[in-house]
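Supplementary Note 3. Input sequence used for the single-chain structure prediction.
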Amino acid sequence: MTTPDVRGLEQLERAVLDDTASLASALRRCLMLAGYAHNEELRAWALKELEGYAAADELPSYRKVPAALEVMVDLYLPGQIVRGNTQRISRHQLPQHARDRGIGESAPIRQGVRELEAVVSRGDPVVRLSPPGSAEYALQMTQEQHQQGNEGSHITSLHWDVSVASFEGVLDHIRTRLTQFVAEVRATMPPGQQNPNPDQIDSAAQQALNITGGDGSTFNITAPNAKADRGGTASANVNEPAPATPQPWWHRTSVIWTAIAAVAATAGVIATVAVAK
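The predicted structure, written as discrete structure tokens, is reproduced below.
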């Protein structure tokens, strides 16, 4: 019994090799090709990349990117207010519950490729992403400051500061995966064959989709109907030896706060500190 050919490889090849074409369009072609070949793993992967990964989904390693943790602080000083003062912090300075959830200096990129392409097209150098529970953690950190005697400090937000280059890197990785898949299919086709068969699609998908999770384990895709979820937990190395307890970031010398107050005073009773993008 002969195996039927699967059409659409040539269109997918053109789409992935055209850097000006939307990656979402290439993934839709891949989705159709996977459907014709009855390859559920390839179909599930393409669909997740299109629609995004849900909070409960394991993320492939290339969707976990380095990100700085930052807090935005309002300072209520005698006779003046300094708003929007941004401070970079370590994961060890987060509340214990946040550390237990794995929130650290790595941000999960769960959005679908169309949304990622829109973020890149805006031209902003950085994007701020809020971890799940960030409002609660900001309140806890504010309370801790007050307990330490810094009653004029109020944390208004906790976020990741992610370079847009990291979003571009995720998109480039996905395009490279698709290109590798096409190349693997071509390598299995003998001279003169116009279209691949399902067996060749299966073999190429196994080679190209050998994706690992953030911990280096094999990444398995099982849910074909994932929806995008803007919230998510970041990965962290739980085996990392715990360093000595750092001094909380708000325990600065009085010189720092005096300098901020002096700058604010020159602008009047209420000063606003602009946060550079």
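The first strand starts at residue 64 and ends at 66. DSSP finds nine helices and seven strands in the chain.
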